[in-house]
Here is the input.
Amino acid sequence: MLISSGVVTNLEGDSSETTLDVDSSRSSFPVHISSEDLSGDELVDIFGVAEDSDYDHSDDGYVVVEDRGSHPADFQNVEAGEYNFTIESGDTAAETTASITVTEEDISVDFAQSTFVEERSNVADVTVDFDNADNAYLVVGDESEVNYEVVLEVTPDENDDEVNVSMNTATAHSVDSTGQHDAFTADNDASVEVVDVVHENNLEDPLAAGDYQLDIAGNYDAGELSEEYDTAYLTLEERTELSEDTVQTHTAPQGDITSVDDFEDATVTETDQIAVGDQMLVTVETSSLYGYLGDDADLASDGISLSVTEQDSSLNAAPQVWSTSPEDDETQLNADLISANQSEEYLVFAIDYNNLYEGDVADFDGEQSFDANFTVSTDNDYVSDDDESAESEFTLEERNVEWDDSVAEVPNSADALVTGTTNVAPGTEMTTRARAPGTFVTFNDVEVSEDRTFGAEYDFSEYNAGTEFTLRVTDPVTSNHVTADSTLVESEEEEEAEANLDWNVDVDPAEPVAGDDVDVTVSAENLGDETGNASYEFIFNGETLLEGDDVELEGGESDSWTDTVEEAPAGDYDWELKVDGEVEDSGTLTVAEADENGDENGAENGDEEPEEGEEEGTPGFGVAVAVVALLAAAMLALRRQN
Here is the structure.
C-alpha cells in the first residue's frame, strides 16, 4: 500500500490531490486509515468520507474505505508538514504504513527547454527541473504518432533538483520490458526506470529521424497520465557521415594513459612522427556514433574498427594489417578507447604498437611508416551502402637525442644555457649532467619543449675559463647516455642601456571647439634599462599648466600627468614643453569657433541645390581640394612647430 505522490501542496488545485493505492490478493475488504498526526475530522475531509456514514469513524480516529484499488486523497488546507498513516485490514490483522509531505509551495516539474535536438546514433540528453516533487513520470514518444512510446519514472537526487535523463538513441528501440534498461540512465544519484512500454510491436531498427513528443506528469496509472506538468519535443536528426580527414595521430611521454583523466593530465602533441617507446594516441573527430561508445563498448559487433597498415611491404607480399576487428589474414591491434566525448565530438584511442615491429625499443633502427584507419562498416545499423572510413599517416622512428654544436663552448656565467634537440615526445623529462673531473659535477632535470628541443641552465660563475668538462643527457626510456665535450669561455656581460626618457604631449578632444573642456596630458617613458631622472614644465598660453621637479622612471617604466583647460574660448594657443630647462617640444592648439548648429566651421543651414548646368559636388578642381580638406580635418589641431 502506498500514496502515489510523496509530496503534495495544501494549495487549491490539482497539486493537492493524490491517491492511496491499496494492493491485496483479496478484492473486497474494509480498509481502516488512521494517523497520529491528523484528527478524525481531518481524515474525513482528506479521503472524502461522508460524515456520519458507516465509513466515518472520526470519533475513534480513523476512516474506512472499501476494497483494493486507488482511493482519492486531497490535502488542500492541511497544514504543511510530514504525515504518517497506518493502513489496516478491517477484518484481519494485516497492516502497513505510508507517508506524505505537504508543502505550502507549489509543485512543478519542467523541461529545461522546449526542444531537445540530437543526432541519431548518439546519446540524447533531456534535462528535467524538479521543484518540491519527489518523482515524476516521463513519457517519450506517442504510439499513435511515431509507433514508439515508453514511460519512465524519474527520481531526482535529494541534493540536486536538476536531472539529466540520457537516452541512447542507438538502443532505445530495443526496450521491451519494465525495470532498469541501459538505454535510459540518469546523472549523479538520480534514477530512471522503465515503468511501461506502450508500443506493441518490437522495433528491429534504431529510432528514425523525426520529432518525439515528451510529456511529464506527477502520476501514471493504467496507461494514463495525471497531474501533467510540462511537454516538449525530442528531435532526432539524421546521423552525420564520417569525414575522410578526421583521424589524427598524437604522441605523449612514456607512461600509461588509460583514462580520460590521464589523457587530460598528460602532455599530448599532435604529430605524425612517433619515437619508439613513447605513447601513441589516435583521435577521431566525429559528431555521431556515441551511443555505441560507452564503457562496455563492443566495437566489432557494431561495425566499428581501428586498423594500422604498413606502407612498405616485402616484395610479392600484401601489406600487413593490424586491426581491432581482425579478419583471417590480419593481426590483432591492441587499442583501448579511453575517451568518447560527445560534447567535444572526438574519440581517443591509446595504441599499443609493440607488435608493429620486431625486437624491443633499443633494437629499433631507422623508421617505418604506416596508415591509421578508422572505419564504420555496413555492419553498423546506420551505414547501409558503403563503408565509411578516415585515414592518417604516421611514422615510427628510432629514438634520437643530440646536443647542439653550440655546447662546445659555454660561458662561465651564473645562467649558462646548454641546449639540444630530440625526436622524443614533448613533455618527456630527461636528466642532464655537467662533469669536470676533480672540479665539479652537477645535474639538471629538463623537459622536452613543444618544438622538441631541450635546454639546461647551469651556474658556472665560480669556474675559470678554459675548464674542460663533459655534458651528458640520459634518455629515460632506453637509459642511453649522449655526451658532448665542452670548454668554459669568458662570459660577456651585457651592459645595460642608458636611461632614455621619451616625452609626449596629447590633448583630448584632438579638435576642440569653443566651450570644450580640453584635457592636456604630458607623458614620459624610459626606453632604456637604467633609471632616469628629469624635471619638466608644460607652458600653455604663457602660463605653467603642469610641472614636475623630480620625475624618476626605472627602465621600461612610464608615467603621465594631466590637467584641464576648462571652457576654452575659440583661438590659437601656443604651448611649450621644457625638460630640464630645455625646450623638448612646442606647438599651437587651435580651438575652433562653434556655429549656431553646433558644427565646427560648418556651412549655414545645410547644402544648397546646384544651379542648372552645374554638377553636384565640387566643380573644377573640387576632387583635389576635397581631398586636401579631408586631410586637413583629420590632422590634429595640435601642430608641432619644430
